[in-house]
Specification:
Helix content is 9%, strand content 29%.
Length: 194
């Protein structure tokens, strides 16, 4: 199902120090991860893509680790990481909440993500949210897809009130000068608060 390219990408993610270190799979098995035969857990592939079809599949996990009090996607918050997507591409999102606290995903303008207390129910692009972004969902997997039809700086934000303003968002940059999608992480992660 996944291309070799994605596998290489996943390897580089798994080598990133600290990204999944706070997970203790023995104590807290995650339905958002794949259980390997030896009992270890593998993180989902955050990005798979087919540049010929102009399609990207994103796995966005809420409360991937404990950072930012769990208000993170894929271990990142406050727009510290995110996706670069070429304009015109279809984006298929698989959202998984790894927490008993409600979370959701809605695409909004980047500035709204860090300032608005309630992001509402209307995503920036048609179809670009989980089914009930304000209510959110607990421990569920939800899917949605949309077309990035204009360039700009957007965000995958949690629509549960107050979360996004408290940092529960990663960026979505729609670019007309790129030919491939990427999951962009900071080169050096700032030390996480204990
Ligand atoms: Cu949230």
């Amino acid at each position: 199902m996944h291309s070799t390219l994605s596998t290489i990408f996943l390897s580089s993610i798994l080598l990133t120090p600290g990204l999944i270190a706070e997970e203790d799979p023995k104590e807290k098995p995650s339905h958002c991860h794949t259980v390997e035969p030896n009992g270890t857990f593998t993180a989902p592939i955050f990005l798979a893509q087919d540049p010929e079809k102009k399609e990207a599949t994103l796995h966005i996990v809420a409360t991937f680790d404990k950072s930012n009090y769990g208000m993170n996607f894929n271990g990142f918050s406050k727009g510290a990481a995110g996706y670069d997507i070429p304009v015109g591409w279809k984006v298929k999102v698989v959202f998984c909440n790894n927490s008993a606290v409600p979370h959701s995903v809605i695409v909004v303008d980047a500035e709204e993500a860090s300032t608005k207390i309630n992001l509402g129910e209307e995503p920036y692009f048609d179809g670009a949210s989980t089914p009930s972004p304000v209510a959110g969902t607990t421990s569920a997997i939800e899917k949605f897809e949309f077309v990035v039809d204009e360039p700009g700086e957007f965000a995958f934000a949690c629509g549960f009130p107050t979360h996004s303003a408290n940092g529960h968002w990663i960026f979505l940059n729609a670019k007309s000068d790129i030919k491939k999608a990427s999951f962009v992480t900071p080169k050096e992660e700032a030390p996480k608060a204990e």
